[in-house]
C-alpha cells in the first residue's frame, strides 16, 4: 500500500507537467490558426506598451533626489523622502480633501444622470424627435474645455446674465467664481452638463437590445412606465452600470487638470487647488520634478486601491459580477 502511495506521489508532478504542456500546445495551436486576429490587436498592444508601460520607468525619480545633470540613473536614491515631504506638508490635508471631495461629489451626482437620460430617451418613440434630442444632448461634449470655462466666466461674472437676475432678486451680485464655496458646485454641474449626454450613448445602445415584446407583454398585464423601467430596463443595464461605476470609482482621484486650473482664481484656491494642479505648479513651474512625481504616483496608487476595493464591494453586492 505504501509503495502505491509513493508511486502516486512520484507520478503526480509528471502528470501536472503533461497537462501544462498540453495546454500550452493547445494555446499555440489556437494562435497559429487565428494569427490574423492577433495581428489586428498588435498595433493597439504595441502603442499601449510604448506610451503606457515604457514611461513607467521614469516613475523611479519619485524615489530619488532627481538632478537633470546627473539623469535618472545618476541621481541619489532617497527612498520615500519625497512622499514623506508631501504627507507632512501643511498643504496636504487641504489639497487631498479638495481632490477627494470634488471627485466623490462628481461621481455621486454625475453617475446617475446618463442612466436617467438613456431611460428617458428610450421612451421617445418617434425616431426624428429622438435624433434631434440626442444631437442637443451630445453637442456639449465637443466643446473645448477652454470654451466651457470662458462661457462660465461670461455667464457668472458680476455683470453677466445670471448675476443680473440675482441682482434683480437680491439687490447685489454674487461672486460665483471668486467664492470658494461655489467652486465645486460650478465645476461639477458644468461637467455633468458637458458629459452626461455623451456618456448616455452606451446605455442607449444597451436598451436598444431589449425585446419590445417584453414591454408589450408588461403593458398588457397593466404595468405602467415606471414599473416597466424598474423590472425590464434597469435589470438590462445592471451589469453595464456595475462596470462603469467600478471604472469611474477607480479613477476617482484622476480629475481633469485643465478645467480646474483654468477656473482657479486667487480667491477660490482653498477649494480649487487639487493634486493635478499642485503637481503642475511644483513640477513644471517650480522645477521640483522628483517631488511632483512622488505626488502624482501617490495619486495613482490611491486610484488603484480604490479600483480594487470598489470592484470587491460590487462583486459582493452584484452576485459575483464585477470588472474582473
Structural notes for this entry:
The chain is mainly α and 324 residues long. It is built from 17 helices and two strands. The protein has a two-stranded antiparallel sheet. Helix 5 runs parallel beside helix 10, helix 8 runs parallel beside helix 14 and helix 13 runs antiparallel to helix 17. It starts with a helix and ends in a 7-residue tail after the last helix. Residues 1-13 have low confidence and may be disordered.
Task: Chart the SSEs and their pairings.
Layout: H1 2-33, H2 35-53, E1 64-67, H3 71-74, E2 75-77, H4 81-87, H5 92-110, H6 112-122, H7 127-138, H8 145-156, H9 161-170, H10 180-199, H11 201-207, H12 212-220, H13 225-250, H14 257-263, H15 269-272, H16 275-285, H17 289-317
Antiparallel strand pairs: 1-2
Helix pairs in contact: 4-17, 5-10, 6-11, 7-10, 8-14, 13-17, 16-17
Brief summary:
This protein is mainly alpha-helical.
User: How many separate helices?
Assistant: 17
Q: What can be said about the biggest beta sheet?
A: 2 strands, antiparallel
Low-confidence stretches: 1-13
In round numbers, the mean pLDDT is 85
Question: How much of the polypeptide forms β-strand, as a percent range?
Answer: under 5%
Shape: flat
The first-to-last residue Cα distance is 45 Å
Q: What is the string of SSEs from the N terminus onward?
A: HHEHEHHHHHHHHHHHHHH
- Lateral strand order in the biggest sheet: 1-2
Helix fraction, binned, reads: over 70%
Rounded to the nearest angstrom, the radius of gyration is 27 Å
Structural class determined from secondary elements:
mainly alpha
Amino acid at each position: 500500500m505504501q509503495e502505491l502511495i509513493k508511486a502516486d506521489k512520484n507520478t503526480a508532478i509528471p502528470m501536472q507537467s503533461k497537462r501544462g504542456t498540453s495546454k500550452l500546445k493547445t494555446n499555440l495551436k489556437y494562435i497559429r490558426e487565428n494569427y490574423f486576429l492577433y495581428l489586428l490587436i498588435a498595433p493597439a498592444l504595441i502603442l499601449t506598451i510604448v506610451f503606457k508601460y515604457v514611461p513607467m520607468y521614469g516613475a523611479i525619480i519619485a524615489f530619488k533626489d532627481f538632478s537633470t545633470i546627473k539623469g535618472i540613473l545618476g541621481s541619489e536614491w532617497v527612498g520615500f523622502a519625497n512622499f514623506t515631504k508631501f504627507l507632512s506638508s501643511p498643504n496636504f490635508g487641504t489639497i487631498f480633501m479638495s481632490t477627494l471631495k470634488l471627485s466623490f461629489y462628481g461621481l455621486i451626482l454625475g453617475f446617475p444622470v446618463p442612466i436617467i437620460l438613456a431611460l428617458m430617451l428610450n421612451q421617445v418613440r418617434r425616431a426624428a424627435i429622438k435624433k434631434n434630442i440626442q444631437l442637443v444632448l451630445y453637442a456639449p461634449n465637443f466643446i473645448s474645455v477652454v470654451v466651457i470655462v470662458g462661457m462660465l466666466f461670461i455667464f457668472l461674472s458680476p455683470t453677466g446674465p445670471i448675476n443680473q437676475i440675482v441682482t434683480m432678486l437680491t439687490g447685489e451680485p454674487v461672486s460665483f467664481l471668486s467664492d470658494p464655496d461655489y467652486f465645486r458646485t460650478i465645476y461639477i454641474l458644468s461637467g455633468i452638463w458637458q458629459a452626461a449626454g455623451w456618456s448616455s450613448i452606451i446605455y442607449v445602445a444597451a436598451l436598444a437590445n431589449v425585446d419590445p415584446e417584453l414591454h408589450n407583454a408588461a403593458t398588457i398585464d397593466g404595468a405602467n412606465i415606471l414599473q416597466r423601467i424598474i423590472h425590464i430596463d434597469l435589470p438590462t443595464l445592471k451589469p453595464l452600470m456595475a462596470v462603469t461605476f467600478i471604472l469611474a470609482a477607480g479613477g476617482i482621484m484622476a480629475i481633469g487638470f485643465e478645467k480646474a486650473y483654468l477656473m482657479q482664481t486667487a480667491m477660490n484656491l482653498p477649494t480649487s487647488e487639487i493634486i493635478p494642479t499642485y503637481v503642475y505648479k511644483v513640477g513644471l513651474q517650480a522645477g521640483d520634478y522628483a517631488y511632483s512625481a512622488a505626488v502624482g504616483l501617490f495619486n495613482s496608487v490611491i486610484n488603484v486601491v480604490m479600483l480594487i476595493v470598489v470592484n470587491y464591494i460590487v462583486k459582493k453586492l452584484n452576485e459575483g459580477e464585477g470588472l474582473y
